[in-house]
Each structure stands twice: as structure tokens, then as C-alpha cells.
Amino acid sequence: MNPPIIDENQNEFLELIEAETYVDIERLRDMSRHGIPDDLRASVWKYLLGVNPGDKAEQMKREHIYFQSVKQQQLQNNSSLGLFYYSKRQNIILSVVQQSLNQSKIKHYTIEELLYLLRPFESVYMSDPIQPNDGKDLEKNIHDMYRCFEVFLQKNYFKESLSYQVAKLITLFKCTQPDLYQYFVNEEVEPNEWCLPWIKYLLSKQLPLDCVRRLWDTYFSTNDFDLHIYVCLAILQYYNETLMELEYSEIKYFLNNIYTIDKSTEDGENSLIRIIPHILKQAYNFRAYVKSRQLI
Q1: DSSP-assigned beta bridge partners for residue 55
Q2: Which DSSP category does 208 fall into?
């Protein structure tokens, strides 16, 4: 469970997204950088990703056109996202990923790999178990998830070479944390054993979902996926002392299963979520340092 967000903050979000004619998206972005209330994230992400425009009339027009095209597709193919709610949850998820993969045309991900990237969206738009009688609300949630995921995969982050991004992270790791970098070299920890997955999955495979959602609030609000590299550096720095005490196999496990390291606190909250604000702050500090030194 995320730390409780004060009612005043939630009311500010509600005032923005429930505006009658126009949603101030710039204001929404500014607020979302610091985290979005859990029960409003499904609505806010649609604005941040550009699925919904700020103009409410244009929003209704787009939705009408979209659902008309869905109905037309149903008539032509006798199958579409609009029929998903009659299927099991797993079939829904696989169908969303398959259609998103076809639309985005990204070549360096398999369906199985994209399933990890879809998990945060699934947790936002399909958090409750699916029942056949959920009807139109469920169908709309499925479409919202699909549209957001499709736009998400069209971001420039997924168009960059994975090898380039890995090389960038390793270069900065070596420059900013030379002792830990050398320790990894000595323990023969290869970049592809941890760095590639961190880049490829945007930490959706390595962190608890509440932490991923919180990080992505910031990524989406600033349209700044470049920050992810610096988030990775901040995580390495945060766990520096712990990592320096581990051996090869332990390091590899730790970096690929961070969600298992920090156990829940007495109040049932995953303790990792509490360090995300610190990680983000340090990520911005790393980026400022790198730019000031022109390291890349």
C-alpha cells in the first residue's frame, strides 16, 4: 500500500480532471511528478500519456471515433478488444500485448517480455478480478489499458537501441561510482546480467508494482524516460554498501529481484516505496552532475 496522500492533494487532482470543459494538463503534469493518488491514477495516466486531450469536447469526440472503429472491427473480424471481457484474464492480457506489439512494430521485445511492461497498466486498469458480468465498465477499462499501453510503446525510449542505452548506463556507472563498478568487474558480473533487464523492463520486473507505478508517475508527467538511466544509478548508489558485501551469484540475484529484498514493514507496507522519493531526487542530482561534467 502506498503512503496515504492527504485529501487536499487528492481534491486538487479531482478539481483538475473533473473540470467541465478543459483539463489543465500542464498543471496536472506538475502535480503528478510527485505522485498520483492510487484511485485516480487510471484517469490521470490517460492525460499524461496523451490518450485524452485537455479539451473535454475533443476527448468525447475521440472516444466516439475510437469505439465506432472498434465496433466496425467487430463486424469485420468477429473479434476485437471489445469482446475480451468474455475471456479469461490471461487471454485478455495476451491479446492486449499482441495487438500492441503489432501496432508499435518494436522489434527487440517478445510477447513474454512485453507482459512485464504491461503489468503496471494491468494493476491500474484491471486491479479487480474480472467477472463475465462486469459489462461496459470492464470493457472500457480494457480499452483504456490497451490505448495507454499502445501510446507507451510508441515513446522514443523504445526506439533507441538497447545496446546504446546499456552502454550509456555502464559508462555513467563507471564514471560516477568507480568503486562499485570495479567490484562488479572483479566479481565478473556482466552488464547483460543486470543492466540490460533494468533498461528493457524499466524496472517493472525488478521492483514491486507500487514502486514502479510511482516511478512511472514521474516518467509520464515529465515525458522524460531519459531519467530512467539516472534512477538506475541512484538505486545502485543506495544499495552500494550492501552490494559490496555480496558475491557474484548474490549480486546477480539481488539486482534482478529487488522486490524480494526489502520486506514489508509492520503496517504491511512494502518498505521500498518509502525510498522512491529519495531515489528520484538523487536521479535528478546524478543527471545534473553528468551534464555539468559533460560525461556523455
Answers
A1: 22
A2: -
pTM for this one? 0.87
Q: Which of 198, 209, 216, 204 is nearest to 255 (CA)?
A: 198
The residues that bridge with 264 in the sheet, in sequence order, are 270
Burial 204-232 (b: 16+ CB within 10 A, else e): bbbbbbbbbbbbbbbbbbeeebebbbbbb
Distance (Å, rounded) from C-alpha 212 to C-alpha 203?
7
Per-residue pLDDT reduced to its tens digit, 80-132: 444 444 456 667 777 778 777 777 667 788 888 999 999 999 999 987 544 44
Domain ranges of the chain: 1-78, 80-154, 158-293
How many Å separate Cα 103 from the centre of its chain? 19
Phi, psi of 55 (to 5 degrees): -75, 115
Rounded to whole angstroms, how far apart are CA atoms 9 and 134? 31
CA dihedral 113→270→151→93, nearest 10 degrees, is 50
- Residue carrying the nine cell digits 561534467: 293
Which positions ≥6 away from 134 have C-beta within 8 Å?
85
Alpha-carbon span 237 to 218, nearest angstrom: 20
CATH class given for the domain over 158-293? mainly alpha
The 3-state DSSP class for residue 22 equals: strand
Q: How far apart are CA 150 and CA 103, in angstroms?
A: 7
Backbone angles phi, psi at 22, to 5 degrees: -150, 135
